[in-house]
Every structure is written in C-alpha cells, then in structure tokens.
Amino acid sequence: MGRRRIRSRIRKSHFYTFRCLRPKTLEDQGPHVINGPGYTRIVHCNQPHMHLAKPLRYRSNYVSTTRYNMLTFLPKCLYEQFHRVANFYFLVAAILSVFPLSPFNKWSMIAPLVFVVGLSMGKEALEDWRRFMQDVAVNSRKAFVHKGSGDFGRRAWKRIRVGDIVRVEKDEFFPADLLLLSSSYDDGICYVETMNLDGETNLKVKRCLDATLVLERDESFQNFSGTIKCEDPNPNLYTFVGNLECDGHVYPLDPNQILLRDSKLRNTAYIYGVVIFTGHDTKVMQNSTKSPSKRSKIEKRMDYIIYTLFALLLFVSFISSLGFAVMTKLLMPDWWYLRPDKPETLTNPTNPLYAWVIHLITALLLYGYLIPISLYVSIEVVKVSQATFINQDLQMYDSESGTPAQARTSNLNEELGQVDTILSDKTGTLTCNQMDFLKCSIAGTSYGVRASEVELAAAKQMAMDLEEHGEEVTNLPMTKGRTKRYAKLASRTSSDFELETVITASDENDQKKTTGVKGFSFEDNRLMDENWLNEPNPDDILMFFRILAVCHTAIPEVDEDTGKCTYEAESPDEVAFLVAAREFGFEFTKRTQSSVFIAERISPSGQPVDREYKILNLLDFTSKRKRMSAIVRDEEGQILLLCKGADSIIFDRLSKKGKDYLGATSKHLNEYGEAGLRTLALGYRKLDEAEYSAWNSEFHKAKTSVGADRDEMLEKVSDMMEKELILVGATAVEDKLQKGVPQCIDNLAQAGLKIWVLTGDKMETAINIGYACSLLRQGMKQISISFNNVEESSQDSEAAAKESILMQITNASQMIKIEKDPHAAFALIIDGKTLTYALKDDVKYQFLALAVDCASVICCRVSPKQKALVTRLAKEGTGKTTLAIGDGANDVGMIQEADIGVGISGVEGMQAVMASDFSIAQFRFLERLLVVHGHWCYKRIAQMICYFFYKNITFGLTLFYFEAFTGFSGQSIYNDSYLLLFNVVLTSLPVISLGVFEQDVPSDVCLQFPALYQQGPKNLFFDWYRILGWMGNGVYASIVIFTLNLGIFHVQSFRSDGQTADMNAMGTAMFTCIIWAVNVQIALTMSHFTWIQHVMIWGSIGAWYIFLALYGMLPPKLSGNIFHMLDEALAPAPIFWLTSLLVIAATTLPYLFHISYQRSVNPLDHHIIQEIKHFKIDLEDERMWKREKSKAREKTKIGFTARVDAKIRQLRGKLQRKHSVLSVISGTSSNDITSNPQQT
C-alpha cells in the first residue's frame, strides 16, 4: 500500500534558522574522504543479501543482556562458585574424603557441597532466565521491512539485517541505526525523541538528503539501490561520517541524517530508512557495557573472615599434627597396645615427619567444620526470600501502571543498606516530562495562586518545624501570624497528602480543585474568562498572551471526533505555553507555510475573533542563544518582533523605555525560582518597514551563505534585531516531578545520602530541576566549572583548557575550605564538554574531592559513557557504595558501573530495567527500598554472618579440644550423622529465620527516623570489632561446653546403675549442649519474633531429640553405637538434662551482660526507639516523640528541610536584629528620661 503526504505540504525546514541542519547547497561541497582504519563499513542499500558473506557479514540485530548462554553457563558458573574460598576448600576436602585419610564418611563431605553449589547455580540460572525472557520481548518487536517489489511487511527486530529498508511509524522506536531517506513531510523533516539515549526531552529535528526525497511511497523502493561507505561501529552518539553513492552521485552524510536505535519517532506520521548498524554494533549498544558480576561489600569482607578462619584452621591443624608427631616420637614406644615392635607406617617412632604430614591432612579435614559450608547456601536462601519480600511490597507497587518493585538480582540486598552516594538521571527518573503553566508576571503584577510542589512540601515542613520549636520562635511577637500562615498552608496536607492535587488559596474553607487541563495548573480569576480586561494594564496583558500564542514552531492537530485542538512541538514547554494561551482565550488553531491563525477572545462577550499573523522570520531557540524570536506582521500591517528567553538574556536587550517593569519582574522571577519553577522572560519590539527590509536583506545573505562561519554570521545578524525590547512579563512553568520526588529526596538527604544528578539535558533545564527537587536553593553558592571552546586538534589548546579547569577546581576547593559559615552550602555544576577534561587521570581526583565537598552535584549535557565514568570515579575514588538510578538506555552504563543499579520501569523502553539490579516504577519508591528494605537486609545479613561464624567456631573447636584430650589421635567425638545434620538441618533454619524476618524497628519507624540508615554506611554491625567479638564468644562457648561436659561425664557415673559415659554418650551429650547453646543464643539476638521464628528455633531443638530417638531405633547395623542412645542411656539420667541447663546459662551469660551494659550505658539509636515503643511512650507523649524524630535527621544542606531550616535561621536573624534595635531604642529612651526628670 502506498504512503501519501499528510501535512498540508508544510515545508518544516523553513521554520528553522539555526537548526535547519544545513542549506541545500552544502551538498555540493563534495563527499567526505572515507579511507583508512575506522572507516571500512560498506552498506548496500535495499540489498541485505549482499551482507551474508564475509567481509560484509555484519552482526545480526539480536541483542542479549544475559550473563550466560547454553555453552558458557556451566564453566562460568562453576568458576564463580569455586572462586569463593569456602567452596574451593570443600571441593578439595570432598576429593580428599574419598581416600582412607579422611576421618569422616565421604558422603558427609560430598553431599553438602553438591547441595550448596547446585542451589547457588540454580539461582543464577533463574535470574539469567528472566533477563533472557526480557531480551526475547525486545527482539520480538515488529517493524515494517521492505520484502521486495515495493511491498513492506512486518518482521521481528532480530531478523532485520544491514541494508534493509524499514518504515517506522509515529511513536515507534527505531529498530536499528538508520539513514533517513524520507518522511511524511515534503522536505524530509522528522522529529526524534532521544530520551533513551541522552535523557533530553526536547525533540530533535532530522532531515534527509534532497536526493532521497523522491522515495515517498512504498512503491518507490522497488528499484532503489545505493551504497553507503561510512565509519565503523563506535559509541559516539553525536558524530557520524559517511557518504551515500546513489544514481552516479556521491552525497556526504552527517549525524543529522542518522536515526539511532531506541530513539522514538514523534510528530511525524512515518519515515523510511536504510539499516546501517544492527544489534551490538548500534551506538546505543556500543555505549553499554557487559553485565558485570557484582558482589556486595559484606560478601567481599566475608572472604577475609573466611581467610581468618582458614588461618585458625591451619593453626589448630598444625598444633594437632605437631602434637601427634611429638607423641609418635616420644610416647609411642611405651604404648604397648599399639604394638611398637611392629609399628604401622603412620605410628612409626622412627619417622615422625611422615606422621606429621599425614596427620596434618587428617586434621585439615577434621577441623573443616570451622569453615561454614552452609553459610553461602543459607545466605542465598535468605537473599532470595528478602528479594521476594521486596517484590511483594505493596507500598512499592505502582497502581497506575500495575508495576511492582522487582529485585532482579538478590546478591546485593544488603548493599542497599550501605549506600553513600546516589547518582540519578533526570528525565523520566525525577521528572515525568510534563510541563504545567503555573504562574506568570505581567506588567509588574504576579498572577497565579496555586502553590508549586516545592512550596507545598516546604510549607508542610515549615509548619512542623515551627510547631516543634514553638517555644523558641512563636513566642516572638512577629512570628505568630507567620506561623499560622505556614500551618494553614500545611493543614491542607492530610495523611493521604498528594502534592499534585493540593492548591493554596486565601480562604481557609476553599476546597482542593484542579483545572482538569493537562499542562495548565494556573489558577487566578483575575486573568480568566476575559477578566483581564479589567486589570490596570490590559494592553500589556494582551501582548503577553499574543507572544505565547504566536512565538513558537508548533503545529496544531484537530481531533476529528472531539473537535479539540492538540499541539505537537519540539519541547513540552511550548505545549504548556500554547495550552495556557488557549485557556486565556488565545487559541492557536492553524498554521500555513507563511502564517499562524489565532482565535482571540478579547471582548466581554467572549466571542472568538480569528486573526492572522504572517510569519516573516523565525529565529529559533538554541542552548547558546537561550532565546527565540518570531518576526510577524499583524492584520493592521504592523511588524512586531516577539521574543522569549532566559531572563538574563532578555534583560540585557531591553530599551530604556522597556524597563518599566524590570524591578517587579526580577523580584517575581526570584520567587518563582525559589519555588522550583522554570522561568522565561517575554518582550517585544515594534519595527518599521524600512528597518525590517534592511535587516532582512542581511539576514537572507547570512542564511544562504556556505561556510564554517555561517552560524556565527546568523547570530550576529539576529543580535542586531533582538535589542531595544520592551519587557512585558515572565512565565513560570512547573516541570512536573514524579509523584513524591521532593519528599523522597528530602528524606534520603536526612538519611545522610548524597545525591548527584547526571543528565543529558542542557544546563538551564538541569538547574531548574535542581531547584524543583531542592537540590539547589536560594542562598546556595553555585560553583560552575566551564571553559571556552578550543580546537580539539590543538594539543596546546587542550592543555590550556585542562589547566584552566584544574585552576577553577583548585580555587573552588580553596573557597570551600576557607568558608567559615557552618551553614554555607555549595553546589557543583559542570557540563559534558568540561567533564571530558575533568575526568582525565591527572585531574579527576581533584574534581572528585571538590564534588565530595559540595552538598549537591549536577552534571549536564553528559553522554552515557561519561555517566558511567563519573559513576566509576565516585565508586573507586571514595571507596563507598554508589547507587545509580535511571530509566533509559542512556543510563545503562552508569547502572551497570555502580555498586547497585536501579532501573525505573517507565514507558520509555525497558533497557534500564534489563541492565539493573533492582527495578521500581517511581523514584519515590527508592526511599522505602533503601531506608526500609536496605536497612533491614544489611542488619539481617550482618547479624546472620556473625552468628554463623560463632556457631561454627563453637562446634569446630570442640573437635580440637577432644583430639588434644585424646593424644591428637585424629578421632572425632561426634557420629558422622551429627556432622552432616549440624549445618544442613539443626542450625540452618533458625539462622535463615534471622536473615528473613528480623526487624530492629518496624518499617514506619525506619521512615520516621531516617538517621537509622546511617548504621549501614558506617558499618556498625559488620566491622572487625563486632566480628571478632562474635568469634570470641564462639571460643568461649566452645571451652565452656567441652570443659563442663568433660568434667561432668568423664570422672563420674551418669546412670543409676553406675555406668560411666563412653565416647558416644559423651559426644551425644556435648552435641546436645551445642544445639541448645547456639539456638538459645540466636533467640537472644533477635529483636522481632513471629510464630515462624519460634517454630524454627525451638523446632530445631525438638528435631534433634526426634532424630536421636528415631535414629537410635534403627537396627544396630545402621545406627551403630547410637542404638537406643536417647531412650536407654541419656534420657533416664537427670545429669544429662541438668548439664544442658547449666551449659545454656554459662554460654549465654557474657552476651546478656554485654547487651545489658550497652543498652544501659551506651545505647544505639534503635535501642532507644525499641524502649520507647515497648513502653508505649510514643503514644503517651507525642511531643517527645516528635522531638526525637526531629533529632533523627542527619545534618543536610539539600532537600526542602534544609530550605526550611535556612528560612527559619533567616527569620530568627531578622527577629534578633529587630530586638537589638528595639533594645537600643528603649535604652536610649530610658537614658533620656533619666537625664530629664523634670520633663518626665
């Protein structure tokens, strides 16, 4: 089916001055020189079969983000498993257990190892399978591909090949890197959204070559052919060099004709393109890195603890084997029952060295239970269970999209509780890419009474703070009214506080209400419904509305069903302005090649009047110009220049007569900025015919010129016209943050986390969002690192640029050091070009030191690669845990580079989620993920590992003591079945319950006391002091258990008939004491009990007695020396039960003393909260509870709490100064009265 043009034959390229890509005549400059390394790719257009054989056989379009495949899973996974020290040890031990030297049955060593490694490999396989299924979903997307003879059919992305002609339709993603051939517009213009690549929300304008414009229908490709010679695959998003050979001509190609994979076609019905790069050759995949295998810091430290236990194992094994060798040499001749006259090789007194070596191997196997083999598998089980709780947390479930939180890997659960720095993307992560027209300043008057999200959040915090500090502040006479006002604003926020729907109004009884118009949250009756005609300056207001409605490049689209008009523009700001103009009564309804039509309601009757404005010139917005102008002729023939731009730019171009409202407007702009709003200033200028004609002639020359200085000439000519402006007013647009972002950032800051923003957006946008998120605020000193453009090819210029940047960094660091105000806050702002030099090896650590000293860091215009490099610098340079969060393909690099990667499962593809370790639907859920689940998981895993070492030392050292007691014989006091059950069954479930269910405080308390989170970054529960303390506790417990059992059972009878305990009876009694001691210890460790924990702890103890009874009932051939051990030997003896009680009391006494002393003398934060909760003091004294919560904030200089604190300090300063003045005045009056008593 043929495709037809649908845009009323509007040639969009005529709308642009600076971004019309290049004039047509540039194609005549000649092709690029394509040769040498890096420029070897040849693409045969419309002939994909030419690329099936080498050397033109390129990669397929199949994309994989998995860690393994069918061939590599077994070797890679086995390597990772046995890369763990403990697993490798038990592999060697399992191999040695096959030989006669082993003191145990071989299956007691092999079975646990197979179980542990198999379970871990199964978990890895399951997680990688999920990644594989997400890859399948992406690779199975469909696109229209030319099948031949002018017919297009749908084909899966993975089957698209280099050279294929594809047709992409509106709002579809590009399946590969394409060369644009034509579009639905007559001149080959198309709009592209690259948010997945660089985070920018502004649409990019792409334009095809004039030579391919004729390819406007499906049938046009029946006989089309051509050859592309271009650069090889590389990660540079903003460069492309190549030539197109077509119909005997060669045309140069540049980035303006390239459509990159994972960017989206917008505001264009369809485009045709030829595939250049596929799969992992595409630029977005070239910017990605291999999915790394991440390990948490606790797991890495656990390796060192394993090494410590190995050292202990080697030490006791050496002592044991040395003792055996000494006894063999000195005492063996006296042991007649070993037949010293006919000695065996192992006990030959003449060869003690051989005995030492052989016994060393036996001892290494015997004492191997010092190394906890089940630790890894227990941790795996616990982490999977923790991940399940994260996945099923309803408070992290997004009901709008139906998306739950997902722990895509469970290896890093505890790492969530140790984060120091968060590196966040902006667009789609902090913001939802929606602009709302909220306030405006016209003719020196501010309009709009609805509060921004930042104002509401700050007002709520202000009211809380003033309530908490009421005695200090509100008693002062000038603060009472202000306190009421803040409380009134905050009173509108209830427990179901929704910033997006809350408004402020002068009447306390006003109800919450919204306009119901997307992009328009303005509320002020003075401008609505033609009421502006009654304002003091209606002419200025009229001009303000006309600038909004006319000065833009948008296109209206009328819905045939509803008749309503929607707008398609390059940026959401323009859409918000047009929606606002429409609501004010100035609706943009139609655009032709030379005119725009506005339906204006400027009469009290409200009837619209259609007015035509002829577009003479458009001077479009660029990041360098920071302004946009439209030169139009109205119906009266008056020529007007309408201009909107950054206030600093507009103010510099005002005429002397145009500054009437400058002071008031500047004040309003500062207020809007403090409220986190994006602002633009609006101005205009009236032109006479002669002046315009002369200027237009110069402008036309510059526009049609060919050369490198074309843009500079255009800028100079435009600057001649954009001056002598008359200021009309300013707009304030709210870049809608995602729900709950300000509170989330504030709470994370109070938890002591640093937040850096890395975005591809321009600096102004990033700064505006910084204000909206309260990462920036008024009074914060901004450090902007930048340099002038230099020629990259010049080494001297590059060195000069690097030196300049280093000097700026040094000066800024010095400024921070000499700052004496303890409340002073600094923000670092740097762009991508400057960052290129700041990340050089000889500069990056100075840059990092400066960034760490600043309260907030904003990096703008950064590439995906730079995001990853900044993340790596923060991770490796500080040595602390970093978390990266983003939602697009441009964030994949930093997500994979960070210690923890979090993907936002938004609407813009799943690349970030597929590369992440955790995924959430909204940024606000990050607070709960870290402050609740991270805090819990860190403490659970830390306590669990410490306890594991405790119980294994307690158990393993009793083997050593017994062997020493028996002359280092290599004999185990325990039955092999006991050894098998100890780690796998009898002590595994309680420790798993500790790792899964333990809570020091409930989730709501974690959120109310964010400073509790700092226990993780400070590593209070897994430092060497605590680890060695638990190890010492294990040594103590092992000594107590062995000595008490030996002293009680060895020297006296324990049964009524006078029998003494044999080795098996004593071993069983000692093992019983161990089971009781370690399970009671874990019960004392827990702060939070559920019925599951009770079942697992006391059930494990009960399971031991059940096993012993059932095992003893087996025939002697199976049960051996344990035959009827419990019911006939131990249970009838009271001393057996009394010994168990005595051991329990003796082993737990030091821990009880320690925890009692700590809670009484030096309690931790959670100890105090537990006590408050236990005695219900929070319910009896709410004021005290609020005061404790206010103390639980980390001192921070970002977030709206810091903004409120700054306001309170400012308020107190003013009040103190006023009281000082009043005191001076009152003192002077008293002196006057004293000196003039007669007058008195």
UniProtKB/TrEMBL annotation:
GO CC aspect terms: endomembrane system; plasma membrane
PROSITE patterns linked: ATPASE_E1_E2
Domain P-type ATPase C-terminal: residue ranges: 913-1163
Cofactor needs: Mg(2+)
Protein name as annotated: Phospholipid-transporting ATPase
UniProt: Mg(2+) binding residues: D425, T427, D887, D891
Residues annotated for ATP binding in this entry: D425, K426, T427, E574, F621, K644, R678, T759, G760, D761, R861, K867, N890, D891
Bilayer-spanning residue ranges: 85-101, 107-126, 304-327, 353-377, 948-966, 978-997, 1027-1051, 1063-1083, 1095-1114, 1134-1153
Top-level enzyme category: translocase
CDD domains in alphabetical order: P-type_ATPase_APLT_Dnf-like
Keywords for this protein: ATP-binding, Isopeptide bond, Magnesium, Membrane, Metal-binding, Nucleotide-binding, Translocase, Transmembrane, Transmembrane helix, Ubl conjugation
Lineage of the organism: Eukaryota, Viridiplantae, Streptophyta, Embryophyta, Tracheophyta
Stated family: Belongs to the cation transport ATPase (P-type) (TC 3.A.3) family. Type IV subfamily.
